[in-house]
Amino acid sequence: MENDPETQDAELRVSFFPELFLQRRIWILNILRREGVCEVLDAGCGEGQLLGTLCRPAPWLLPPPADVLPPTPIDDTRAQSPVYNTEEIPNLHIHTVYGLDVSVEDLKFAVEGTAPPPPEEIADEAGSPGYRSYVSGVQRWEGLVAKLWHGGLEVINEELVGVECIVSTEVIEHLPAEIFPAFAPMLLGVYHPNLLLVTTPSYTYNARFTAPEAPPSARKGYADPTGRTDRIFRHDDHKFEWTREEFIVWCDETAAEWGYSVDQTSIGRSVAVDPYGRDEELEGASNVAVFRRSDAMDAATREQKGRVAIKELAIPSPSHTLFAVHQHSPNPASMKPRPLAEIAARVKSKMEEFREAFMRVEELWYEKDIAVLCGGWIELLVRAVEQSDDLNLKRDSDGISQGRANWSVELIGGIVEPYVVNRPSYERESSVDYIPADWTPGEGPHEPWAWEESMSDRESAGAEGDVSAYTSDADGEYESDTGTSVGWGRPSSKGWNTELDKQKGSVNTAGWARTGEWGDAEDSWSESKVPHSALSSSAGWDGDESCDTTS
Q1: Which residue, among 201, 194, 184, 199, has the nearest Cα to 254 in the 3D structure?
Q2: E-assigned strand segments in 225-302
Q3: pLDDT, tens digit, for every residue of 29-77?
Q4: Contact yes or no for 2/208 (Cβ under 8 A)
Q5: What CA–CA distance (Å, rounded) separates 252 from 261?
Q6: In contact, 84 and 62? CB cutoff 8 Å
Q7: DSSP state of 4
Q8: Helices (H), 85-239
């Protein structure tokens, strides 16, 4: 390959999975989740894709206080109720987002992406027996304010002073020479957030686009518009692209000057292995850094130092103008729960209506009336099930402890008053999501109803687009500038087909199967029914479950 003239004179194809803009968003969201961030400024928000993601509601509130849900008594023979929000990927509970950008056209798109959803249309079949309401999405339990500002980052906005977290993704490389000196004094000085997250292209990685001995003509990019270097950039508006070494030096010097610690790395590796073995040397396509405020300098000193630096720069710029404000209001029932007995009774009646012996806890939660009774606290649903004589909480399957997302509720005693469907049972579709492996078909209290099939027919999907940089670009042709992603995952529609399925805890959608038929139910769903929580709280792509790109 090294002697192939065609390879030497042509660019190498480089692709990313997930796409590079998604990997940057995953990196950001994982840090926000891990740190429990509630307030975010997106400096250079572009068309607002990140802001739109942050405006999505968490599926439930943080754990309730002890006066709402007292700890389980030590002498209670039931299992101690767990806190439901301690998962590896916790939900975001954002209450304020700010967007700042110089482009009016981009902000118009950001206005649409951060606006509250329109009033929900009530489906024609709502209220009819067997109707499942989770298809209409996640309810909001916490209020949120989204404010969009038009202006440059070189201008002080007093409302942004002391903001908790600032994100600057693919922005710094677009700043003109006269604006760049204001970046650190403004963001780390005047605003002095707890966290600043920065991403910018790695010039070191650009070597990956050509063979080692390729002539300059092989590189299809953009010459440094400033004329300071002979480098070829990824976008025509980039004023610079730092190598890995240059980025590290800037991070260390900037952190030391403004009293921050910094962790830097790179993200974004090509799907294909470099034919010249340079992957470890070139590292990732995007440089990323987390600046964390330290005690090396107090907030007042840091802020005053920043104000002095901005004043000395004397950059003539207009003041910020408030472009749009959106208020996302919570459900009126938020933090106003009903008694546990009432919650348990509703769960029992729902399972009877749906003709289900087992349902996932989260599946029941996405039935809107149940979540409303709980006031937005899913822990109340868990406790209500635990204390009910008609329900049983299943935390494991065949002795293997299951992840919280796979906990299920068993209806003890089967279906008492099944609803009537105007179709014979062999035409109905089945929908028991999670039948534990330790339950024997045909035995126990479920047998009178165990071989009926139930009906349900729902699926849910969502999509979102790309992230725009400060000037609404996506860093050239090496990554897609548009993108969509399915908002809800799609678990398998198969039943317990094999012993391996049992061991893995596979999700199945087989319902009240006929005796001896524990494979696919003839009329089972072909799509998923209920999202897992990781797919519903500020998800950037399929739940952002990957932690591979965190620093």
Answers
A1: 184
A2: 232-233, 260-267, 286-293
A3: 999 999 999 999 999 999 999 999 999 999 999 989 989 998 876 555 5
A4: no
A5: 8
A6: no
A7: -
A8: 104-114, 183-184
Helix (H) / strand (E) element for 400: namely: strand 400-401
Token pair 């993108």 in the structure block, residue:
483
313 and 183 Cβ atoms separated by less than 8 Å: no
What Cα–Cα distance (Å) separates residue 427 from each residue in 25, 520, 521? Answer: 44, 14, 11
d(CA 450, CA 418) in angstroms, rounded, equals 12
Three-class SS state of 349: helix
Q: Would the pLDDT of 409 be above 60?
A: yes
Contact 239, 222 (CB under 8 A): no
Mark 467-486 as b/e (b = at least 16 C-beta within 10 Å): bbbbbbbbbbebbebebebb
Domain ranges of the chain: 5-59+95-116+144-328, 340-457+490-527
> At which residue do the structure tokens 């390959």 appear?
1
Element (H, E) at 532: none
Residue 214 · residue 8 · CB < 8 Å = yes
- Mode of pairing for the β-strands spanning 96-101 and 39-43: parallel
Q: Distance between CA atoms of 434 and 310, rounded to whole angstroms? A: 60
Q: What is the fold of 5-59+95-116+144-328? A: Rossmann fold (3.40.50)
Task: Tell me how crowded residue 61 is: count the other CB atoms within 10 A of its CB.
Answer: 22
- The gap from C-alpha 24 to its chain's centroid, in whole angstroms, comes to 12
Residue where the block lists tokens 């480089």: 14
Q: Name every residue whose Cβ is closer than 8 Å to that of residue 551 and which is 6 or more positions away in sequence.
A: 27, 31, 263, 264, 265, 288, 289, 290
pLDDT in tens, 101-134: 999 999 999 999 999 988 876 555 666 666 676 6
**For the CA atoms of the chain, what is the radius of gyration?**
27
Q: Looking at residues 142-169, what average pLDDT do you find?
A: 98
How far apart are the C-alpha atoms of 324 and 115, rounded to whole Å?
9
Contact (Cβ atoms closer than 8 angstroms) between residue 512 and residue 344: no
Distances (CA, A) of 360 to 256, 350, 411, 436, 497: 50, 13, 11, 11, 19
Q: So what's the pLDDT on residue 503? A: 40
Per DSSP, the three-state class of 276 is coil
Picking from 450, 454, 457, 428, the residue whose alpha carbon sits closest to that of residue 518 is: 450
Cβ–Cβ under 8 Å, residues 433 and 358: yes
DSSP code, position 467: P
Summarised one tens digit per residue, pLDDT across range 286-326 is 999 999 999 989 999 999 999 999 999 999 999 999 999 99
The dihedral region occupied by 176, where left means phi > 0, alpha psi between -120 and 50, and beta the remainder, is beta
